[in-house]
Write a structure and sequence with these properties.
The chain has helices at about 10-20, 35-45, 60-70, 85-95, 105-115, and strands spanning about 5, 25-30, 45-50, 75-80, 95-100. The protein has a five-stranded parallel sheet, with helices on both faces. It has a single domain, classed as Response regulator (Rossmann fold, 3-Layer(aba) Sandwich). It has about 120 residues and is of the alpha/beta class. The two termini are about 10 Å apart. It is globular, with a radius of gyration of 13 Å. About 45% of the residues lie in helices and about 20% in strands. Helix 3 (about 60-70) links the parallel strand 3 (about 45-50) and strand 4 (about 75-80). Helix 2 runs parallel beside helix 3.
Length: about 120
Amino acid sequence: MKTILIVDDVEFNIDLLTQILEDNYQILVAKDGAEAVTRTQQSKPDLILMDIAMPVMDGYEATQIIRKTFETLPIIGLSSHAMAGDAEKARAAGCNDYLTKPVDEDLLIKKIREYLG
């Protein structure tokens, strides 16, 4: 079973994403970017759903650090505070894709399948 790391500082978002994905994927959770870096190094997930705006370390910085070691790991940036240019900034940081929250369940599953097969 493929593993997805959900990185988000809001419990509601973690719960929602877990409910959508837990039947088909093993779920790991990190609550900030620093924890995401550590969890990725320890667990080597198959895909990361990375919230962009978080305390301690944001998703941009965490993605840049993760990319140094895991060059091909799919990372999908997520943000509920989508502003013009955020998708480009996320891609520049190393995200493969970018979705706005609340996430459309069908689109999320489609994107994950694109990256994980």
